[in-house]
Amino acid sequence: MTKHIEAFFRTENDGESAKAELQKLSTQNEMVEPIPEQSRLTGVVPVLNQSQSSGGVAAGGVAGFGDFLKSDKNTSREDTPTDVEHLTYLLHFDVKDDEYQEALSILKNHDGHMDQDKI
Question: Whole-model pTM?
Answer without folding.
Answer: 0.72
